[in-house]
Amino acid sequence: MVSAAAAADFSGASALEFTRAAVAFGQRPAGSAANLKLQAYIESKLKPLRCQISYDAFTAQTPTGAVPMRNIIAKFPGTSGFSIVITGHFDTKPMPGRVFVGANDGGSSTGVLLEMARAVSSMNHGDDIYLVFFDGEEAFGEWSDTNGTFGSRHLADKWSREGFLPHVKALINVDMIGDKDLDIVQETNSSARLLRLVWKTAADMGYGKFFLQEEMATEDDHLPFLRKGVNALDLIDFDYGPNNAYWHNEQDTMDKLSAHSLQVVGSVLMEVIRKLQ
Ligand SMILES: [Zn+2]
């Protein structure tokens, strides 16, 4: 018999397979046919689980025109009236004329979230746990305050209007967390107390060497929530290949990732969720 605790364990190997499946759809920028196919795949993996699936669909005004986008939200209900939210993006950066499949950037966050869904589904938790798959994290062309993070900005506004944000105990965003050579920086815009909790948890689990003391400011899907006062953190490894050489180009492929790195991040997130209860 498998104990409840063991059943709730996060599998890095499984997360890697989910990532591989997402990457197999090829380039999947917001609004593309491949992006819609990936959405259907994500839904097919969530539907058998004990969660409520909802959508945040909208049309984004991008420098290349209006683009339909849709965030996918899986809610695993608890009883406390509070929520813990784990987020990541599933789109890849639109790169006309190039083959960019975003194994780490877009793929790894999708894989971790899908494996978390499986693990959270068999875990005891008092708080509602939300797993949010953001569309449109990537910019169409050059990144700016209004080009990129389309999905997270839309959901932060929606949840703010609905009065939901005060119920959020913590929001942790993951991005580019599959690199074989995992080194997660301390993102300086993030909530310091949430960062300390994650770093201490990682150290206690023997994963301290993957969570650096180095600080770096990053604009990512956590920011729209931080700006609205949410206790939010971004977990990102922005050191992907020599001098970040694999980022946003043809070299961001599956062979650069490892199940172990996904295991480290997923296991730490599961333990942090337990501690936040
Ligand atoms: Zn990117």
Task: Report on the architecture of this protein.
The chain has eight helices and eight strands; from the N terminus they run αααβββαβαββαβαβα. It has 277 residues and is α/β, with parallel strands linked by helices. Helix 4 links the parallel strand 3 and strand 4 (128-134). The longest helix has 19 residues, at 103-121. The protein is globular and about 45 Å long. Zinc ion binds next to loops. Zinc ion binds at residues 93, 105, 138, 248.
Write the layout of secondary structure elements.
Layout: H1 4-7, H2 12-23, H3 33-46, E1 52-62, E2 65-76, E3 83-89, H4 103-121, E4 128-134, H5 150-161, E5 168-175, E6 184-187, H6 192-204, E7 211-216, H7 223-226, E8 232-236, H8 259-276
Parallel strand pairs: 3-4, 3-5, 5-8, 6-7
Antiparallel strand pairs: 1-2, 2-4
Helix pairs in contact: 2-4, 2-8, 4-8, 6-8
Bound molecules: zinc ion.
Describe the structure concisely for a colleague:
The protein has helices spanning 4-7, 12-23, 33-46, 103-121, 150-161, 192-204, 223-226, 259-276; strands at 52-62, 65-76, 83-89, 128-134, 168-175, 184-187, 211-216, 232-236.
Give structural attributes.
binds zinc ion, two-stranded parallel ribbon, disordered N terminus, 277 residues, six-stranded mixed beta sheet, alpha/beta
The number of helical elements comes to 8
Radius of gyration: 17 Å
| Major sheet size, sense and barrel closure | 6 strands, mixed
Oligomer: single chain
Low-confidence stretches: 1-7
Mean pLDDT: 96
In N-to-C order, the SSE pattern is HHHEEEHEHEEHEHEH
Distance between the termini: 26 Å
What hetero molecules are bound to the protein chains? Answer: zinc ion
Helix content: 25-40%
Judged by helices, strands and strand pairing, the structural class is alpha/beta
Trace the largest sheet across and list its strands: 1-2-4-3-5-8
Query: How much β-strand is present in the residues?
Result: 15-25%
